[in-house]
Amino acid sequence: MLAATTPMSGPYNAAVDLLGRNLGARADKTAFIDADGRHSYAEVAQRAERAGAALSGLGLAPGSRIVLVLQDGVDFVTCFLGAIRSGLVPIPLNTLFPAEDLAYILSDSGAGAAVVSEPLAAVLEAAVASAGWSGQVVVSGQSGRGRTLASLLADAPIGAAPHDSQADDIAFWLYSSGSTGRPKGALHRHRSLALTAELFARRVFGFEEGDVVFSAAKLFFAYGLGNALTFPMYAGATSVLFPGRVTPEVVGDIVGRSGVTVFCGVPTLYASLLASPQVPARGSALRLCLSAGEPLPAEVGRAWRQTTGVEIVDGIGSTEMLHIFLSNRPGQIRDGATGTPVPGYEVRLAAEDGGAVRAGEIGELYVRGPTMAAGYWNQPEKTEATFADGWMRTGDKFEQDETGIFHHRGRSDDMLKVSGIWVSPVEVEAALAAHGDVLEAAVIGVPDASGLVKSKAFVVLKPSASASPELAEALQQFVKSRLAPYKYPRMIEFLDDLPKTATGKLRRHALRDMEAAKQGADRAAAR
């Protein structure tokens, strides 16, 4: 049964729940470790209460939106939860967004205030000027650049009653990355935070009170918000927050120094760690790992387990569903597979005509469950296209085998038709990644001189390997030995790095743009 404090309807405030469940015996326990030190659950609760009062004191009424352009740290936690506690609606934003995207969101959201980390203040100032935005700006930091969060917290009162929210009221927004157009604001309800923790973190993954968690994904992402804030607070665990870019060196240092027991990463980072001296050694405190964002290649999962003695639980989630809804299970890992539905969620596969697909056939994945967003802000057409009849259309292609296990086969717009047969680029990429010289790979469709689509692989090699025509041919033969021969990449190009989003997802469209530009230049030179 779900915890009694997580109702599907009726009076309920998500921040009151997460903050209040740790004010008994765990009040003095460390909740978060950030660049400024350790923060107990009692301190976080008090700071959040002050933050909510301070932000409301800016003249914002319940329901008003507040943009958070904050690096990972206790200020993010307390502003996010403090706003929700007071009935305001926080909107965490990607700290790598350029001024153009920030300006769009300031205008689109109708936010009345923004809280920004000092190192990001100049970008926000440019966005404010570009948008002609007249809201109030609060700076998290010690500079004299306008009103500071520290001064507001110092003057904020304690003791204000929390806002009388309902479980299905909108608590916060999360904007998509905008990789396929303008960012879209997904509207999330109060009940959804704790439900992701109960349904996935507790029932599937097994978060425990004694865990120390470090998430490579930042708090402004749905994946990172669950990993580093919701899940540890729900369990009464400890979360390590790092404000900068997470590299293998950072992971190695934090995992070793902070006694991390749960690490949450993305496939690219796991592969990079395996190729570096920073990979956690057997016998460390690490007990379990989580991966999402893109499918975890089978070889990476196996190599990580063999090297560290620790499993990686792979799953898939989305901004719209708030966290993972389809996942492997600890102790029952199927390498290269995504797993089965998380309790509380239903999934189905649909053919192009909307009909059902049989076992072994590829279809588009639809999901429904209690944490689904209420829709997109100010985007009725996209809301209708994505959310229909209680289901969310994910845009991901999957195949379900005879045992009920789901296997990711790529995005709907990434599938390739080669010689009249559908080919999943993810399947080819996984085959390439199994080669001992390959660090990572990406596959796209490229038209040849006659306009027919051929598959092309972009390959990043491990430091021990060197690019050569002979290796390219060997990789093609390797794929042929593992997959149906027609699936092998007709062309291979070696790159130093693959283009990725801030979450580590492959920017496949950037490779398509690069290839189109190259072909255009070749045609121009031929004329």
Summary tags:
5-stranded parallel sheet; Rossmann fold; 9-stranded mixed sheet; 2 domains; single chain; alpha/beta; 24% strand; 527 residues; globular; GMP Synthetase, Chain A, domain 3
What layout of secondary structure does this protein have?
Layout: H1 14-20, E1 30-34, E2 37-40, H2 41-56, E3 65-69, H3 74-85, E4 89-92, H4 99-109, E5 113-117, H5 121-131, E6 136-140, E7 147-148, H6 149-155, E8 170-175, E9 185-189, H7 190-205, E10 212-215, H8 222-235, E11 238-240, H9 248-258, E12 262-265, H10 267-274, E13 288-291, H11 298-308, E14 312-317, E15 324-327, E16 340-341, E17 346-350, E18 362-368, H12 380-386, E19 387-388, E20 391-400, E21 406-411, E22 416-418, E23 421-423, H13 425-433, E24 438-447, E25 453-461, H14 469-482, E26 491-494, H15 508-526
Parallel strand pairs: 1-11, 3-4, 3-5, 5-6, 6-7, 10-11, 10-12, 12-13, 13-14, 25-26
Antiparallel strand pairs: 1-2, 8-9, 14-15, 15-16, 17-18, 18-20, 19-20, 20-21, 22-23, 24-25
Descriptive report:
With 527 residues, the protein is of the alpha/beta class. The chain folds into two domains: 14-398, 3-Layer(aba) Sandwich (Rossmann fold); 415-526, ANL, C-terminal domain (GMP Synthetase, Chain A, domain 3, 2-Layer Sandwich). A nine-stranded mixed β-sheet has the order 2-1-11-10-12-13-14-15-16, sandwiched between helices. It has a five-stranded parallel β-sheet with strand order 4-3-5-6-7. Strand 10, helix 8 and strand 11 (238-240) form a beta-alpha-beta unit. Helix 4 (99-109) crosses helix 5 (121-131). The N and C termini lie far apart (70 Å).
